[in-house]
Amino acid sequence: MSAFDTFAVVDWSARSGPSRKRPSQDAIWLGISRQGQLAEPLYFWTRAKAEEHLACMVKEEAAAGRRMLLTFDFPFGYPLGFAKALTGEDDPFAVWDWIAERIEDKQDTERSNNRFEVAEEMNRKFSGLGPFWGKSHEDRWPDLPYRKAGISYDTIPEKRECDKVARTASSCFQLFYNPTVGSQVLMGLPMLNRLRTLPGVAVWPFEEHDAANVVLAEIWPGLIEDAIREDTGGVIRDALQVTRLALALSRLDPARLEHLLKDLPYQAREEAWILGAGATKDLTELARGEISVVIPARPNQRVAGNNEPLAPPPLRDDCFALPAGVDWTPVDDALAMLQDRLHPVVATQTLPLDRALGRTLAADVTAKRANPPHANTAVDGYGFAHASLTEGDQTLPLTPGRAAAGKAFEGAVPHGHAIRILTGAALPQGVDTVILQEDVTASDTAIAFHPGIKPGANTRKAGEDVSAGDTILSKGRKLTPTDLALLSATGNTDLTVHAPLRVAVLSTGDELVEPGASAAPGQIFDANRPMLLGLTERFGFTPIDLGRVPDNRETLRATLDRGAAKADVILTSGGASSGDEDHVSALLNETGAMSQWRIAVKPGRPLALGLWKGTPVFGLPGNPVAALVCTLVFARPAMGLLSGQGWHRPQSFTLPAAFSKSKKPGRREYLRARVTDGQAEVFKSEGSGRISGLSWAEGLVELPDHAVTISPGDPVSYIPFASFL
Ligand code: AMP
Ligand code: MG
Questions:
Q1: Which residue, of 203, 326, 432, 482, is most buried by count of CB atoms within 10 Å of its CB?
Q2: Neighbours of 507 (CB within 10 A)
């Protein structure tokens, strides 16, 4: 027995408290395809409700004589060796029992569970730090590390074999910060352990399942991510994922499914396996296409009509969560975290070619037509068939008429004849070679020339540049004037692009006054705001000026509200540290969706990153030099990702230094610089309030995290400001 009648996909959740009663993201969703029919996705606001429903379904499907494949989006096992170390047995079910005995889930009553305590107990079975890490409070659960640093994973691997094959981003040992797969396992295995005791249920791949009526299996929505990304406009992403996964599974050829269920490496016996790992391409294809059922819209989300821009899903509340506090995060780690957690937030729309300059492609573009579309001549001259030439000097009679660009010669040129042909003209039938007019003597009726011309000379083949159907530009490309040439030549007139990223800018500080206004003693003119608005425009985004805000929490709150309502990103400067007047960090902290990122960079004090009403906020330092460096190094790549451009590192160049400097280890350092006579020169002062140096500079010299001593002539890395655009 192999075929299934019902395919179900569960998106599990490890939330401490219940989800909203109204369908929402990050709760539990169930997608079902039953006998070839998709069902509307079902929503559960607690784990208990979901389990109750699943247990019913197990019975009902059996009663109706339907065989069901019931899949879940969290790991069914831990890496090889874990079971033995925890329970003394190799049996994965021993782990299930062990965890199920200890987990207390009080989601409904106390909005809590004891998963961190249970993880601590597991950690105590292993020597050294870990393997479990990540928690909500740094100062609680001492046997559970707050961060991963220092955990060796040399006795127990961090990831399972199937995680490597499927390239999942997560480890089942990570309990907090996205992705929180580890917590889903702890809050999911007890439920599976109960379901598996129901009659007719078998767990794949641990148990023989041929005779089972219900097979429980692990799946991973990331397998079909490409299909999901295409249409998340306005709908709840989790609901779409479970529906499309159920669809893909139901469409799998039964023999292929059988193969996926049976052909497994030895690790699967203990680690479990992701059904479909390694079959990403096929599943993604099967997940595509029209679906008849309605996927619920995101709350507060307008569902776009046909011609309206489609909005992608919002960022997750905890996208900036960071194990903060103790260590300084290296620049590369901070960048890796931004890259990992952000995704495009701007809508897509279709624009005609002549309005698309500078916009970012939201989809790959293929050539509608080859370039050149037809074989043609590269010169003015005479065309003929090379095979019709004879030995020695040639005389060919001329066929009446001519071929010119846009005015094709309709007839055929007889064998042994030539025809007058002009640059760009399609080669007439019977012509494969063109001789330059300068190389012939011509009368009204014939041409004569010396031997030696090669077959195909002076012609361009159809499609020699681009074939029809070739991908000519990839999604994420910011369209240049030359791209417009390529798009036009290949017949592309309507382009799917992202709406421009709207970037709101505000300055904070009681000391700031508007340039031109009268400045009292102690007051300074606002320098950051014009700079940040200008940078935003140069990046190709849409600047929105939110003005200056005094060091007053209520005014700042109202201004952030305005920003969140009309922008996709907010850049603030000043007030980002943790002093009395640092209201940006204080307010972002209040929302709970903020982290003080202590990044090991100079210049730059803590960068405050957070979400304000769902809109990411970059709380930049007030010092103009630090504000510029943090914008270029951190905010620019992050905004690139948010705007659909993907993740880019600025192009740097290695140049000989025109300066001496010795630097201590620990922080990456950026110096204001420019190129003189092929050498990188740096500004005479490193003072971070020296605005004249910002204007003097044309780029930055980047010095590594470790200690260096630089003498004139030594190679250094120089990043021109243009590389950040
Ligand atoms: P803060 O981060 O608010 O403590 O500010 C650090 C330093 O940067 C102080 O000297 C501020 O006066 C200065 N500063 C803050 N915002 C601006 C601005 N928009 N333009 C010029 N200087 C600023
Ligand atoms: Mg200030």
A1: 203
A2: 26
Would the CB of 526 count as within 6 Å of ligand 1?
A: yes
SS3 per-residue string spanning 141-154? CCCCCCCCCCCCCC
Ligand 2 mean position, distance from CA 525 (Å):
13
Q: Residue 481 and residue 136: Cα distance in Å, rounded?
A: 49
Q: In angstroms, what is the span from residue 724 Cα to ligand 2's centroid?
A: 27
Is the Cβ atom of 564 under 6 angstroms away from ligand 1? no
Q: Does pLDDT of 325 surpass 50? A: no
R_g over Cα of the chain: 32
Q: Which fold has domain 653-724?
A: Beta-clip (2.40.340)
Q: Identify residue 67 by its one-letter amino acid code.
A: R
332, amino acid identity: D
- Between CA 216 and CA 12 the distance in angstroms is 14
Q: Is the peptide bond before 205 cis (omega within 30 degrees of 0)?
A: yes
Residue with CA closest to ligand 1 atom 15: 622
Mutate to test the pocket of ligand 1, among 523, 553, 573, 629 (most ligand atoms within 8 A of CB): 573
With CA atoms as reference, report the closest residue to 221 among 83, 354, 73.
73
Average pLDDT score over residue span 387-391: 94
Q: Which two tokens mark 718?
A: 């120089």
Going from the Cα of 510 to the center of ligand 2, the distance in angstroms, rounded, reads 7
Of 694, 649, 702, nearest in space to 671 by CA = 702
pLDDT in tens, 465-505: 999 999 999 999 999 999 999 999 999 999 999 999 999 99
Query: Looking at the CA of 630, which ligand is closest?
Result: 1
502-520+546-624 maps to which CATH number? 3.40.980.10
Q: How remote is the CA of residue 572 from the centroid of ligand 1, in Å?
A: 11
Nearest CA to ligand 1 atom 6: 622
Report residue 599 CA to chain centroid gap: 23
> Domain 348-366+469-498: which topology?
Molybdopterin biosynthesis moea protein, domain 2 (3.90.105)
The SS3 call for residue 473 is: strand
Q: Ligand 1, from 505, 510, 528: best to mutate by most atoms within 8 Å of Cβ?
A: 528
Residue ranges with strand state E in 550-632:
569-573, 594-597, 601-602, 607-612, 615-620
Convert the pLDDT of each residue in 330-371 to its tens digit: 888 888 888 888 889 999 999 999 999 999 999 999 999 999
Nearest Cα residue to atom 5 of ligand 1 = 622
Name the pTM for this structure. Answer: 0.61
**What protein residues have CB closer than 5 angstroms to ion ligand 2?**
509, 574-575, 622
pLDDT of the residue at 578: 77
CATH superfamily, region 376-460: Molybdopterin biosynthesis moea protein, domain 3. (2.170.190.11)
Q: Residue 176: CA atoms inside 13 Å, Cβ hemisphere, count?
A: 20
- Cα 548 to ligand 2 centre (Å): 11
Question: Rounded to a whole number, what is the largest CA-CA distance in the chain?
Answer: 101
Interval between CA 570 and ligand 2 midpoint (Å): 17
Residue nearest to atom 11 of ligand 1 (CA): 622
pLDDT given at position 294: 84
Q: Domain residue spans in the chain?
A: 6-74+197-287, 82-90+110-188, 348-366+469-498, 376-460, 502-520+546-624, 653-724
